[in-house]
Amino acid sequence: MEFKKLSFLLVLINFLLVQAKSEHDIIRAVMSADLEEVKDCIEMAISPDTKDTNNNSLIMIAVKNLSTTPKIQKQIIEFLLEKKANLDLFNNQKETALTLAIYFGNEDLVALFLEKGAHKNLNSKILGEAWRKGMADNGPGFPEKFYSIKDMLKEAIRIENKRAKEAPNLPNPKDPKELSAANNESTNTTWF
Q1: Angle at the Cα of 182 (from 178 to 188), degrees rounded to 5?
Q2: What is the pTM of this model?
């Protein structure tokens, strides 16, 4: 009887170990564009704001994952946003999900992140640097994508400036805890 109890406990422990998900599992799932595994990990209470060793958030990792289809990439990002992933996080290189999407010339993700308000705590200098670097590194073959992104950014900044002028005493809806000290300049469009 003792042997059966011990066997049962070993099987149970093994089962629990197999079922346990870690931050490494979700990072690996995002890198391999495995949406179902990402969902499983989140269901097991792993934070949608999990970061890798370079402080890249899961959304940043997904943005950088150019080996997957844009459709799967966007599905993963939309799922993470549904689970309240924070778009305002900075990695060790002071990049955000939005600045990475700008850099890689991903119009769909730039539009999605702007719609979610990711630009509201970034000044035009930071956005302009991401755009210029992306245009230099990735734009020669696809200049129309980068000019389309530039137009989206200009419009988002114009709308935000208008909102700020019309209601200057309203608080910004974004939480400033994760913002970089380098982001203290006012939002304007001087980099265009």
Answers
A1: 105
A2: 0.77
